[in-house]
């Protein structure tokens, strides 16, 4: 497995200080094989690996990780980035109903997905309507009606299907019906074929033109591997789509199709389907998919641990700095905040220091959303201001507020909070000293 192979690369590299070209090449080779084994399309693999090598060459030497681990970390980060970084949400129409159209091959899982998506949206307070516009496949209408009932949502199925009726007309009429019945989201299930087929594409394009969907979702079976690329390309050309849904991720497919489809069409993967039951469905998580494609959970965990240990060393360094009597600056404040965020509950190390408990209280009072704003404010300060916050006067505060998109009041409150923290640090130092720390009394 990749884990084994990389482990042996690691052991030969252990102890080396920096990323040499040979290290990068050796790791890149293993990554390349892993991606191909995960069914990522060759052109995508080539482009990706070239990009990784370039980034690895420019990477700073890490103190926390050995070179191979560092490359893997970069690969993982890049995969997450390419797989979507930020997960895109459904775009809702300004004037309801929002129209979502599903497209994909027969057997991809469209009808099942329609039910899952409807249930998911209903749980979020929407009133979805499922529309049976697959009039081809025997019992498709019936299948959708059963799903609608299970999902406890409305269904629009005026035609018996089984080859009868006009799917374009059904789709068009369903919008009026939804408006009348106050459904705010319409999900249109369409017919697929076993392979790419001009008739199918034309029908899907006609439905698209008839209802002008807010989102066309391309539904693709993760198990079809390399074929996903040609299929995605054909649907992109024939119908066009805004987002991708990967199905059958409960199977043993490594999910390389996700990466290929994302790269080749430039469309985000929005949802993942992981089983036959209605609940087997979730928004797509790029980090989980990256781990799956690389198939090296253990190594990623190891890397995380190494990084964590390194953070602890940083914490110790910070504590040492405080004990040595240097002034506590905004740089330190930001660094501590980021550390608290990364580590969740702060390490024992900080807990052991008198006064640090209080400090942590202070930092914990800043909630996640605030953290971003505080970080933005500190980043809008000049280095001189961070080192010597006393110089931050009214006009500087106004500039910082403008630069970070917050109000001056927020900057004022941050500065006040900072001076409190600094005072606390001083008291701590001048008081009993810090037991067990270099420079402190025991
Ligand atoms: P459609 O032709 O695109 O509408 O596909 P269907 O929704 O009818 O699904 C085809 C088959 O795949 C059905 O037997 C579904 O139960 C099954 N299926 C759909 N999604 C998933 C999934 O995420 N995991 C598994 N294991 N099976 C699925
Ligand atoms: Mg179907």
From TrEMBL:
Binding positions (GTP): 104-111, 189-193, 247-250
EC identifiers of the protein: 3.6.5.4
GO cellular component, one term: signal recognition particle
Enzyme class: hydrolase
Every SRP54-type proteins GTP-binding domain range: 268-281
GO MF terms, alphabetically ordered: 7S RNA binding; GTP binding; GTPase activity
Keyword terms: Cytoplasm, GTP-binding, Hydrolase, Nucleotide-binding, Ribonucleoprotein, RNA-binding, Signal recognition particle
Major subcellular location class: cytoplasm
Keyword Hydrolase: yes
GO biological process assignments: SRP-dependent cotranslational protein targeting to membrane
The keyword Membrane appears for this protein: no
Annotated catalysed reactions: GTP + H2O = GDP + phosphate + H(+)
Compartments, as annotated in UniProt: Cytoplasm
Family indicated by similarity: Belongs to the GTP-binding SRP family. SRP54 subfamily.
Subunit and partners: Part of the signal recognition particle protein translocation system, which is composed of SRP and FtsY.
Functional description taken from the UniProt entry: Involved in targeting and insertion of nascent membrane proteins into the cytoplasmic membrane. Binds to the hydrophobic signal sequence of the ribosome-nascent chain (RNC) as it emerges from the ribosomes. The SRP-RNC complex is then targeted to the cytoplasmic membrane where it interacts with the SRP receptor FtsY.
Domain remarks: Composed of three domains: the N-terminal N domain, which is responsible for interactions with the ribosome, the central G domain, which binds GTP, and the C-terminal M domain, which binds the RNA and the signal sequence of the RNC.
Identification of the protein by name: Signal recognition particle protein
Gene that this polypeptide is encoded by: ffh
Whole sequence portion shown: 4 to 445 of 521
